[in-house]
Amino acid sequence: MSAATGATTGAAAARQLSFDELGTPLRDVTFVVVDLETTGGSTGRDAITEVGAVKVRGGEVLGEFATLVDPGRGIPPPVVALTGITDAMVAAAPRIEAVLPGFLEFAAGAVLVAHNSAFDVGFLRAACAATGTGWPRPAVLCTARLARRVLTRDEAPSCRLAALARLLHAHTRPAHRALTDAQATVDVLHGLLERVGPLGVHSLEELLGYLPEVTAAQRRNCHLAAHLPHAPGVYLFRGPSDEVLYIGTSRDLRSRVRQYFTAGESRRRVREMVGLAQRVDAVECAHSLEAQVRELRLLAAHRPRYNRRSNAPDRVWWVVLTDEAFPRLSVVRAARPGALGPFPSRRAATDAVDAVQDVVALRRCTQRIPARAPRGVPCALAELGRCGAPCSGAQTPEQYRPEPARVLALVEGHDDELLHRLAAGIDRLSQAGRFEEAAARRDRLAALLRAIDRGQRLAALAALAEVVAARPDGAGGWELAVVRHGRLAAAATAPRGVAPMPVVEALRAGAEVVLAGPGPLRGAPAEEVRAVLDWLARPGTRLVRVAAPWSEPVAGAARWRPWVRRAEAGRAGYAAAD
Predict the structure, then answer these.
(1) Domain ranges of the chain
(2) Which of 57, 182, 367, 462 places its Cα 20 to 30 Å from the Cα of 24?
């Protein structure tokens, strides 16, 4: 090849790549065209009798998948007459639970195509649910609906597979057998794709966006993503009054935002939001952790109405000891030193209170007792028989003081005596044959242990004045983060070939100043500390610098993790047996 020819080819390739930024070119998309035969039309009552699929890319057949399936029931005579599949033919065939893994592996990473896809995908999803197999949620393309969009009624009065196969000159004619019909659908798909090319549909995203599900408002606003970069960050949809409608995060801002204008976006409220949007702003970030943290902060600042968690992005609950002569446990929103939490809901915090009160003699009545309460005189609730726990009338302050101290020792990880008490109580109930009550207490203790463990891990990070960490970026470089008292203070990257330590020092010098606040998390939002901790705990992360030893309490809930795993396994086994 001459140099001139090579240069011309390279220029053409460069022009093609810029064009391809619109999305995934259709020639590079892998389609798996599937067809099913079943005992009937109900996903609840009927079952699959045959699976046929063809994998294609760029007009070339890459492979085929075909098998009969034992439906576990008789095939009705009308279905036998239609498909020719009899009970004798499927008697030795594998059951669907043996077929599904192979089919899902065959279709992994591909766009699933079917004629009247709701039928085929509905049966596949029902089979996954019945066998406990996870549904991978692939992109789905229906050739029947695409045909209604592409072809006029005069040209195609009927969009049945047989009619389309004749119209588009398919090489294979449908015969109500799975593989044959899948092969015919491949020819129909290719014929329809030839029709959409002249209409400006050249990528998978444009093809999905061309389907009828895309509203006119979605299609009208697709230009809003044109200016966004292919970079990680946070995107903000803004409305007519410049208000923030929706906030999200992505590793590739332009690709993610473009998806909101295609048929792949099926959420009603989000499609409504896209119709209202006037522009999309973006905040480029160094890496995914910075994007996640910025998203949390922007959600708290703007509270956009179309984000599910925007009403209370930082809402968590804590369990604290009240500040009075005879403290009791109280569920509150603001943390203080010695608080147990955080909990995602008030119900979870209340369950933790109930678990602790099973073994600690703390009063439960809400009547406030003065510091100089007369000793030996019961409070009004106790006098009426409505107080089921000790209070000023039952104990002196000196006798009562060890109970709250035990709770503080549990939360701070100095002593896990209360956990041993709770576990022993569960064992006693089990030995007495009170299995349902034992199981309820087991689940409550497991939830309490998870909460204490989570709180101690978050508090250990928040206590550190500074942590500098690095993670491989997958391309020979490093993602860098400076964390101060559990908050992300700075983020950057050191690309391949760039010495990371000078970048680290510059990053530390310009990082945000974070002053420690009150409470176990030093004033940091719980969700942000959790996001940072998850990033730091991922395999491959390296600690570059830590201001002080990073440690968790020796008597903390971490050493109860094997107990929690056994409890969860027992609960899962009971649910499966039930």
Answers:
(1) 26-205, 221-311, 317-453, 465-549
(2) 182
Q: Which whole-number Å values give the CA distances from 287 to 81, 248, 249, 290, 513, in the listed order?
A: 59, 14, 11, 6, 21
Residue 116 Ramachandran class (φ > 0 left, ψ -120 to 50 alpha, else beta): left
pLDDT at 310 over 70: no
Rounded distance between C-alpha atoms, residue 230 and residue 491, angstroms: 18
Residue 32 has pLDDT above 50, yes or no: yes
Radius of gyration of the chain (CA): 31
- Segment 113-170, tens digit of pLDDT: 999 999 999 999 999 999 999 999 999 999 998 998 888 888 888 999 999 999 999 9
Distance CA 524, CA 484 (A): 10
DSSP-assigned beta bridge partners for residue 354:
none
Tell me the residue length of the chain.
Answer: 578
Name the CA dihedral angle for 371, 375, 381, 387, rounded to a multiple of 10 degrees. Answer: 100
pLDDT tens track for 497-523:
999 999 999 999 999 999 999 889 999
Active-site positions read 176
For the domain 26-205, what is the CATH superfamily, name and number? Answer: Ribonuclease H-like superfamily/Ribonuclease H (3.30.420.10)
Q: Which CATH superfamily is 221-311 part of? A: GIY-YIG endonuclease (3.40.1440.10)
How far apart, in whole angstroms, are the C-alpha atoms of residue 40 and residue 229?
A: 49
